[in-house]
Specification:
This protein is mainly alpha-helical. It is built from 8 helices and no strands. 76% of the residues lie in helices and 0% in strands.
């Protein structure tokens, strides 16, 4: 069998040849799997992440740059995919926690629980005190973890407008929290 190097495999892949994909897969699969498992701590999630990354490689094959390393491209894709998975998992956990708290309020609250509820109330009041557009952007970014680009697309506004509103919201919230909750931390 003919040995194909990474650069030749990329050229074959860009031409839509499965042989190029197979060479790249065989060269980098194990290494990427180790990275994915290191961060995800689960072999099934790691395999799912790799499958998604290699699907993306196949779908975006014509945009690959022959001069750049396919290994770097795959590593960045994997990193972004894992960060998205972690962010989405965090949202699910927070959503489940909020739902549980809503339907099963604590009856035997400790002092810390009561203080946490009070801080949450102050935080919500601070958000409510913001102008409507700033409040909407602040919630989408702070509570739901959306990126500036996602918010801009969702609200049909520019990225810079999102940044400006979030900057002003952050500034307003810091001032509000310092005043209302006597908190001296940085958001």
């Amino acid at each position: 069998m003919l040995q194909i190097n990474s650069a030749d495999a990329v050229r074959l892949l860009k031409a839509g040849k499965v042989e190029g994909f197979n060479v790249i897969f065989n060269l980098y699969h194990k290494q990427l799997y180790v990275q994915a498992k290191k961060y995800l701590k689960d072999s099934h999630l790691a395999e799912d992440a790799l499958q998604d990354v290699f699907i993306k490689l196949w779908l975006k094959r014509d945009t690959l740059d022959n001069e750049k390393s396919v290994q770097s491209y795959l590593a960045v894709c994997l990193k972004n995919h894992i960060l998205n998975m972690i962010r989405n998992q965090k949202r699910r956990i927070l959503g489940a926690y909020e739902l549980k708290e809503e339907y099963h309020p604590l009856t035997n609250c400790t002092e810390d629980d009561m203080q946490l509820k009070e801080y949450r109330k102050i935080l919500n009041n601070g958000i409510e005190a913001m102008p409507e557009k700033r409040r909407e952007i602040f919630r989408l970014k702070f509570k739901y973890g959306l990126s500036n680009e996602q918010i801009a697309k969702k609200l049909k506004i520019s990225n810079n407008t999102v940044k400006a509103h979030f900057f002003q919201g952050n500034k307003q919230m810091k001032s509000y929290l310092k005043r209302e909750a006597e908190l001296g931390f940085n958001l």
